[in-house]
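Hi V.,

Quick status before I head out on leave. The structure for the redesign project is tokenized and pasted below; the design run finished overnight.
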């Protein structure tokens, strides 16, 4: 079975799909505006030397996200049926 995991545990070069956001308020709105919606592929591009923040690619855009926030984004491996 394809178990959900957190975006913060995605390794550099790995990709997975968003399965949900566990936050509310302005940060949730920001991530939704960036395109972090259910089923969207995300790739971890790099981590800073101390691991915070990390850079991710979503829909052709690159953005940095603190570990505190990336721990609130649920992910699943690609190839999952959404129904």
């Amino acid at each position: 079975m394809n178990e959900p995991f957190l975006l913060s545990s995605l390794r550099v070069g790995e990709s997975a799909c968003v399965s949900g956001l566990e936050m509310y308020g302005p940060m949730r709105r920001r991530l939704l505006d960036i395109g972090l919606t259910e089923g969207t592929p995300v790739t971890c591009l790099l981590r800073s030397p101390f691991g915070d923040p990390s850079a991710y690619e979503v829909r052709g855009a690159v953005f940095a996200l603190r570990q505190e926030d990336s721990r609130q984004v649920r992910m699943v491996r690609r190839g999952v049926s959404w129904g």
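Above is the designed sequence. Strands lie at 5-6, 15-21, 41-47, 54-58, 61-65, 73-76.

G. will cover questions while I'm gone.

Best,
W.
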